[in-house]
Design brief:
alpha/beta; single chain; about 20% strand; four-stranded parallel β-sheet; Urease, subunit C, domain 1
């Protein structure tokens, strides 16, 4: 048993002082109790390790619901595309065609290490480079390279396995596969990792333009079989409305409903261009949202109605998508600022906890994992944040310390500096800003090796 002492603990729903976490040998939270209760328990059992964070807040690790790790290699071109399709054709697809196992591993190692340092303990990696450059299956070798990077770093990963059976462009050869093959390979991957503590797999028909009706329905059925959510890019661009009308005679949300797959397992990635009736339909079906505001801004996609989702009590998790940045606190901050810009008003998401939950608790729900909240039986994935760091002052001395700290975490914190330690499954994976399981020099060396 491991004991973690801290000035404050926020479970994701409740603020506590003078409490500690007890973590068992399986990497799960055994108990959250007062310091006095832990002292009494110590007379009965021996704590293998005791860690003290006297000026810190312990909070759940951030859950990144949507990432394309290899796109970190597009960072040098972020400012040049003329529009979304230009970005796809002139930048994304050439990069896609150049990828192999080595570049996929190196790019994942780079971006996953940055995520950990900024407090992300779980990533939903939406992976679609399942083929070799000639269009034949990589037989899972590509995806294994990405999974290996996460495992080496100690990052928890939900492999959101993309399913893609449409498209004739050269770059789409890396994605396109018979829908039966896509489903079977996803099933095999899920079975391979079903007992792995930090790896899980869920299906994701890429989009209405990338996945056929048969594939979308098969993916939803597979999610039910595996007892997972399933994800799909939906209504990211305004042009997606016309595509849905041409192929299905309705809206993007209407297309999913028409196929009989819109339900509580459905996670809509982006969900920007929806009318009010479709937002009501999403809420009524208890579907969820994976929102990526910084990438949506960079690609000129538009602004999702997050205030509307909050009013409808729809679960919204956050993602870093193209990984222009890997800071989920910045994503949450951007959510609120975009709502203010669009509505010409402040307080669009009035409760600090509504934004705060998007960092972790909601993300756990979007990925269908027991993460994002500190409760007995949940994964011991958490951060120790130094409340004495300048970016978090003067919150720790405010009269209403809980609201003050939550606000500053979202709106002014420098997470890469303020975070003292990051834990996944009770194991320290970042300490004092340094990785513990992989040498920092190795990350840079991998990038030099593939690009040098």
């Amino acid at each position: 048993m491991k004991r973690i002492n801290s000035k404050y603990i926020d479970t994701g729903t409740t603020w506590l002082s003078d409490h500690c976490l007890l973590v068992n040998e399986r990497g799960l939270i055994e108990r959250i109790c007062t310091s006095a209760e832990a002292d009494a328990l110590h007379r009965q059992i021996e704590f293998e390790e005791e860690l003290n964070f006297p000026q810190a807040l312990i909070l759940p690790g951030c859950v990144n619901t949507h990432s394309h790790a290899f796109q970190v290699l597009l960072r040098p071109t972020t400012g040049q595309p003329r529009h979304f399709q230009d970005w796809v054709d002139r930048f994304l697809y050439p990069l896609v065609l150049a990828q192999d196992e080595d570049t996929l591993y190196a790019s994942a190692l780079l971006v996953f290490s940055q995520m950990l340092k900024q407090g992300i303990t779980t990533v939903g990696e939406f992976f679609y480079l399942n083929n070799l450059p000639d269009g034949s299956s990589s037989r899972q070798r590509n995806v294994q390279a990405v999974l290996q990077a996460a495992r080496d770093l100690g990052l928890r990963i939900s492999l959101v396995r993309a399913l893609y059976d449409q498209g004739e462009k050269e770059g789409q050869k890396r994605f396109k596969e018979p829908w039966q093959q896509a489903i079977e390979q996803t099933r095999q991957l899920a079975l391979q990792y079903q007992k792995h503590a930090r790896v899980s797999v869920l299906p994701a028909p890429h989009s209405l333009h990338g996945a056929s009706p048969d594939l979308i329905q098969a993916a939803a059925a597979l999610a039910e079989e595996l007892d997972t959510p399933w994800h799909i890019h939906l209504a990211e661009q305004q042009s997606d409305l016309q595509l849905a009308q041409e192929r299905y005679g309705t809206t993007p949300v209407g297309a999913l409903d028409q196929l009989g797959v819109l339900d509580e397992r459905t996670v809509l990635v982006h969900a920007i261009w929806l009318n009010e009736a479709d937002k009501d339909r999403v809420a009524a079906k208890h579907a969820s949202i994976a929102y990526n505001p910084l990438t949506n801004m960079a690609l000129g996609d538009g602004i999702a109605d997050i205030a509307g989702w909050v009013r409808r009590r729809v679960t919204v998790g956050l993602g870093t998508d193209a990984n222009i940045q890997t800071d989920l606190f910045a994503e949450a901050r951007t959510v609120e600022y975009l709502q203010r810009t669009q509505n010409l008003a402040m307080g669009c998401i009035p409760a600090a906890r509504s934004l705060y939950r998007m960092l972790h608790l909601n993300g756990g729900k979007v990925l269908g994992l027991p993460v994002g909240e500190l409760q007995p039986g949940m994964a011991a994935d958490f951060l120790a944040v130094n409340l004495e760091h300048p970016s978090l002052l003067p919150a720790a001395y405010a009269e209403e310390v809980e609201t003050a700290v939550l606000n500053q975490l979202i709106f002014s914190a420098w997470p890469a500096e303020a975070i003292q330690a990051v834990f996944v499954g009770g194991e320290t994976v970042v300490e004092a800003g340094r990785l513990t399981l992989v040498r920092e020099e190795n990350v840079a060396e991998e990038i030099r090796r593939i690009l040098g």
